[in-house]
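Sequence design from tokenized structure. All designs in this work follow the same two-part layout: the structure record, then the generated sequence. An example of the structure record is given first.
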């Protein structure tokens, strides 16, 4: 244990955009008020780590400790921490949950208004860093988590306790991507039994939506992707039909889907982060009750365009789903229960496992589209 003092810890530092992470000794400060310091057991790589690692300018910033999916043990607690104690099993979650504000106390929202989610390189409350290099250079945080280190400091609003019966290399999946996709189907959309679902993009998030839709009893799950390998993989996640969006020339994919579904799907999930695909998704969800759910992350300033008359008379719904609409502290235990009850299947998401020393391999695998989730053991 580092005890309540600055300590030296190993971290994988992103020094420059797109360049391999460098494992080095860094100094981690003790937790301040409402913070905990945690020892990471394992972490996994989410596509947002790759997106921000590639970004030269803000919100990319360097040198930085990336990583935000992890499983850990509380090592020490700062002042004013009641809900956690040394030795607790926890997962960090990038989305704050203060449990007190109007949004956190409402069942209808997961958008904390005390700590509004923003992409910041600092700790949540005081806007400073807990990491420095041995030479005293400040290291930036990532998504309030920075899990590519043996020890890290996280605000209690960004921590959820997790049942220690969940193995570490499954627990870390609840931190971001899998929860996001499963939550989008279960919570944001509330997919109904027997319905038809279309998923644009069969990466980790899209396949997690498929898993959620499968749990909800969807009878048809149509996956859209440009990579044909994704169909075989998708079958394990309940995908029943595959549409290769490169195979139809100039014909819009929405038209292909409308023909396949006799007028549109009940639910369309956009899991790529492209405005044009959101429009395609909207165009092939059924009039009257179809829902289009935006899960993919586009560039911050990107705009969406819809015909006003379509919105007016088609009766379709467009919804956004950040972290699957889940409330980090109260909904994650419900997903964990579904996993322990063997309803939610997680094994199939973990395609690779590497040691911390090989963290750059995990980046390579995800960049090349070869992995869904690669678990990195500390
Ligand atoms: C994302 C969610 C949207 C903004 C960037 C980060 N979260 C996790 O991967
Ligand atoms: Zn993520």
């Amino acid at each position: 244990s580092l005890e309540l003092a600055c300590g030296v810890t190993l971290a994988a530092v992103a020094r420059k955009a797109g360049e391999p992470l460098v494992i080095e000794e860094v100094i981690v400060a003790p937790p301040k008020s409402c913070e905990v310091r945690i020892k990471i057991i394992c972490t996994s790589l989410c596509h947002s780590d790759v997106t921000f690692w590639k970004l030269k300018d803000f919100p990319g910033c360097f040198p930085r400790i990336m990583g935000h999916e992890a499983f850990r043990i509380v090592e020490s607690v700062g002042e004013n921490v009641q809900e956690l104690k040394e030795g607790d099993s926890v997962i960090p979650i990038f989305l704050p949950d203060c449990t007190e504000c109007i949004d956190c106390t409402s069942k209808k929202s997961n958008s904390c208004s005390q700590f509004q989610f923003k992409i910041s390189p600092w700790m949540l409350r005081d806007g400073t860093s807990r990491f420095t290099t041995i030479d005293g250079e400040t290291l930036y945080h990532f998504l309030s988590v920075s899990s590519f280190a043996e020890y890290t400091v996280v605000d209690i609003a960004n921590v959820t306790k997790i049942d220690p019966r969940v193995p570490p290399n499954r627990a870390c999946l609840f931190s971001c991507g899998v929860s996001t996709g499963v939550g989008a189907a279960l919570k944001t959309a509330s997919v109904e039994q027997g319905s038809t679902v279309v998923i644009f993009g069969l990466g980790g998030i899209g396949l997690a939506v498929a898993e959620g839709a499968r749990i909800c009893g969807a009878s048809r799950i149509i996956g859209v992707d440009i990579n044909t390998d994704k169909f075989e993989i998708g079958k394990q996640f309940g995908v029943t039909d595959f549409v290769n969006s490169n195979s139809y020339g100039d014909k819009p994919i929405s038209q292909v889907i409308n023909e396949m579904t006799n007028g549109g799907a009940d639910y369309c999930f956009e899991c790529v982060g492209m405005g044009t695909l959101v429009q395609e998704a909207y165009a092939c969800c059924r009039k009257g009750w179809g829902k289009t759910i935006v899960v993919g992350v586009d560039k911050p300033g990107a705009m969406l365009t819809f015909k006003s008359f379509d919105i007016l008379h088609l009766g379709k719904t467009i919804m956004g789903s950040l972290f699957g609409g889940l409330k980090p502290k109260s909904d994650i235990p419900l997903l964990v229960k579904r996993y322990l009850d063997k309803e939610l299947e997680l094994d199939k998401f973990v395609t690779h496992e590497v040691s911390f020393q090989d963290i750059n391999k995990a980046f390579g695998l995800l960049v090349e589209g070869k992995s869904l989730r690669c678990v990195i053991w500390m």
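Residues 46, 48, 68, 176-177 surround zinc ion (ligand 2) (CB under 6 Å). We note this feature because it recurs in several other targets discussed in the main text.
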